Amino acid sequence: MTDATNPVGSYNEWDPLEEVIVGVIDGAAVPPWHPAIEATVPPEAWEFYRRNGGGAFPAEQVEAAREELDGFVRILEDAGVTVRRPDPVDQSRPFGTQAWQSTGGSSHTFPRDIALVAGDQIVEATMGWRSYYFATHPFRTIFKDYFRRGAGWVAAPRPELTDASYNPGYAAAKGPSRDPFPPESSVITEFEPILDAGDFMRFGRDILVQRSHVTNRFGIAWVRRLLGDRFRVREVAFVDDHPMHMNATFVPLRPGKVLINPERVPEPPEPFRGWDMIVCPEPAIPADQTMYFCSRWIAMNTLMLDQERIFVEAQETELMRLLEKEGFTPIPVPFRTVNTFGGGFHCATLDVRRRGGPEDYFTD
């Protein structure tokens, strides 16, 4: 079981939720155009980034997303969950290193991307986009408080993110390969450890990770060595030529059940051969809806309140109907504008504390 004296304790994605960080949208800015952006965002959004990088998103969308996030917080608090929020920050202010300059983005909206909670320890990610170089800073007030109260807290090595970290020829490197995502087809190189926490998913003593356009093998090796024998870090791969974060591809619901993306998961990864793979239905998000950061499959980006209750975007009626058939109780919450900014309930939260311990759900 989790340590009652430690404010941080979360080993999986489904035990009863007790404390969570929920992001904020205030101050979000459009990340400047860069090959790392090109490799991950929908092509129909490319021109938007070229025109508006460093500027603001439409004010009415920011306001709508703020209302959705605040409404979600009220629902969590009514359910007895303690909610923390990061410090707001003006992401349009420029920053940089000796090698490059940038402005920020909307990383303070999606805490799942910037830190991994591994048991009683917070692990800050490096982040693969220059625009997210200081992505963890809005959360430092919270992390410092947790550390003072007994939590573990460590940050991955600050990356240089020079041109040596990026592979401008990544698109041309795609082709027939036995590897679903050949190293040379990633926009990031193996020059230094790079990792986004959104590429990790927790299953008790096992933590799944995918290599992507924002997480390389060097970064995976760093996490594996950091966590040591406490956790088994298992690398998995899916059929996705623009991978970035796992929670719109492979979403755990409870022991034995996973929600999968039918376009990216033709068969379950090796450890999950005996688990039920619930195929997510076609998203209700209109095909012509503006999506700045991700595909319509963000609709499957749900969050478990416990092993039965699950937060689902209010318009995803087919998904809720399927989950009800599988024995879950969907909690519909409006979140469509937040989806537009690139995240769902899982992205917009970092579950700091869940009741439960480091169970072993697999046998090697």
Contiguous low-pLDDT stretches (5 residues minimum) are: none
Mean pLDDT: 94
Beta-strand percent range: 15-25%
| Beta strands, count | 17
InterPro entries: AmidinoTrfase
Region (Disordered): 85-106
Biased composition (Polar residues): 94-106
Family: Belongs to the amidinotransferase family.
Offer a concise description of the structure:
Helices cover 18% and strands 19% of the residues. The chain is built from seven helices and 17 strands. Belongs to the amidinotransferase family.
Describe this structure in words.
The protein has 364 residues and is an alpha/beta fold. Helices cover 18% and strands 19% of the residues. The strands form six sheets. It has a three-stranded mixed beta sheet, with helices on one face. Strands 5-6-7 form a three-stranded mixed beta sheet, with helices on one face. A hairpin with a 2-residue loop joins strand 11 and strand 12 (257-260). The radius of gyration is 19 Å and the shape is globular.
Write the layout of secondary structure elements.
Elements: E1 17-22, H1 35-38, H2 46-52, H3 59-78, E2 82-84, E3 95-96, E4 101-102, E5 115-118, E6 121-124, H4 140-148, E7 152-155, E8 200-203, E9 206-210, H5 217-227, E10 232-236, E11 250-254, E12 257-260, E13 276-279, E14 303-304, E15 309-313, H6 317-325, E16 329-333, H7 336-340, E17 349-354
Parallel strand pairs: 1-2, 6-7, 9-10, 12-13, 15-16
Antiparallel strand pairs: 1-17, 3-4, 5-6, 8-9, 11-12, 14-15
